[in-house]
């Protein structure tokens, strides 16, 4: 590979110029352009892509004009730009840009440092570098897993105030490959915006690129929503099983409760601990309430079943009222005149058949009335109530989170 000759005295002359001119001169205009090459939420071994940061691999291009680097300053008769190595950066002025929300940063050095420095005859400088960043991004999990996140890449000047240095976005500065694919998110088109950073030392220029991340819900529909819907519907099968089949109904109730509980615990381990209720918490908690309530319904049905059995047993026993009345009549009667029982009251014999003095002893009937709220009727009512309530909950839940 042949390399064209570049005048070696340009570096020495630039160093001399720096020592005599740069001390009191400031660059007041900087045009930044950012090309996003790869962007994805940062993965973690335990909680996957649910942490409050993301990783981005980007090419950052900065343009500015430094008249001290114009070719006429060095008496060079050249009309094309110089492409120099990154070593020249130690000898020329470069903006003190830093990433305000950076956690970690890496510069690519394979196979050589991925840095481009190009100086044009008029003193225009192009400084391009490939960087990998891990940036902070405050996630809002209120609507998880139907949430949309907004993350940004914020760039500021560290030492120069707005009186000395300003960052200005160029036209259409944010670019990304058309084939960019994120496993769990859909990346919206980024926007370039301005901001100001005020500290006790002054006000500094600030720009940032903002990106929208729309979480794909298809995975969670298959992983959370469909399985829990199936479990809830299985718990409703109890209402079609004979309430006398205790082992079957208890087994279904216990299994469904444990399944929903395990699903909720696993989801909580995958998400960071937050102080507010997430959309997935509303779903799992409501499903747990449905399966627990269906199990409690069997407890009520079993109680009604036992009460009905006790009532039938009591109705089958003979009542002692008639025997008591016969014993009373035999002790009260003294004589029998012409086949008619009589009672002695002084000297007069009064026939007991006299309607005027005859008193009938009532016979009490303790046969209980059967209540309409038995176990079978409760199950029939629960079939309609539970399925209708779960359908209404689904309609309200999906409308509230998807349409909002």
Automatic annotation (TrEMBL):
Spans traversing the lipid bilayer: 219-241, 282-305, 384-403
Pfam families given in the database record: Neur_chan_LBD, Neur_chan_memb
Residue span, Neurotransmitter-gated ion-channel transmembrane domain: 224-317
Any one GO MF annotation of this record: transmembrane signaling receptor activity
Membrane topology: Multi-pass membrane protein
Localization of this protein: Cell membrane; Membrane
Protein name: Glycine receptor subunit alpha-1-like
Species in which this protein is naturally found: Lingula anatina (Brachiopod)
Taxonomic lineage from the root: Eukaryota, Metazoa, Spiralia, Lophotrochozoa, Brachiopoda
Gene that produces this protein: LOC106167211
């Amino acid at each position: 590979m042949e390399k064209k000759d570049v005048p070696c005295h340009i570096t020495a002359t630039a160093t001399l110029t720096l020592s005599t001119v740069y001390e009191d001169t400031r660059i007041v205009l900087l045009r930044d352009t950012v090309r996003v090459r790869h962007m994805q939420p940062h993965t973690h071994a335990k909680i996957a892509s649910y942490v409050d940061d993301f990783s981005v691999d980007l090419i950052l291009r900065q343009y500015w004009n430094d008249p001290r680097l114009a070719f006429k300053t060095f008496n060079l008769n050249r009309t094309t730009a110089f492409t120099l190595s990154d070593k020249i950066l130690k000898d020329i002025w470069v903006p003190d840009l830093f990433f305000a929300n950076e956690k970690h940063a890496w510069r690519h050095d394979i196979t050589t440092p991925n840095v481009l420095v190009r100086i044009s005859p008029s003193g225009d400088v192009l400084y391009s570098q490939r960087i990998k960043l891990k940036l902070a991004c405050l996630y809002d999990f209120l609507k998880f897993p139907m949430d949309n996140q907004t993350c940004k890449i914020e760039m500021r000047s560290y030492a120069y105030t707005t009186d000395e240095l300003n960052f200005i976005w160029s036209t259409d500065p944010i670019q990304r490959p058309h084939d960019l694919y994120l496993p769990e998110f859909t990346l919206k088109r980024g926007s370039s915006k301005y901001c100001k950073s005020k500290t006790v030392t002054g006000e500094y220029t600030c720009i940032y690129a903002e990106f929208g991340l729309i979480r794909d819900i298809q995975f969670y529909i298959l992983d959370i929503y469909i399985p829990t819907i199936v479990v809830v519907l299985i718990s409703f099968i109890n209402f079609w099983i004979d309430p006398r089949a205790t082992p079957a109904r208890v087994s279904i109730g216990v299994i469904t409760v444990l399944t929903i509980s395990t699903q909720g615990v696993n989801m909580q381990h995958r998400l960071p601990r937050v102080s507010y209720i997430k959309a997935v918490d509303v779903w799992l908690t409501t499903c747990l309430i449905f399966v627990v309530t269906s199990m409690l319904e069997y407890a009520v049905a079993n109680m009604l079943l036992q009460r009905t059995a006790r009532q039938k047993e009591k109705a089958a026993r003979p009542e002692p009222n008639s025997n008591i009345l016969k014993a009373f009549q035999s002790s009260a009667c003294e004589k029998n005149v012409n086949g008619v029982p009589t009672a002695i009251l002084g000297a007069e014999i009064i026939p007991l058949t006299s309607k005027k003095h005859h008193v009938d002893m009532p016979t009490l009937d303790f046969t209980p009335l059967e209540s309409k709220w038995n176990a079978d009727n409760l199950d029939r009512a629960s079939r309609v109530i539970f399925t209708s309530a779960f359908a209404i909950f689904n309609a309200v839940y999906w409308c509230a989170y998807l349409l909002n």
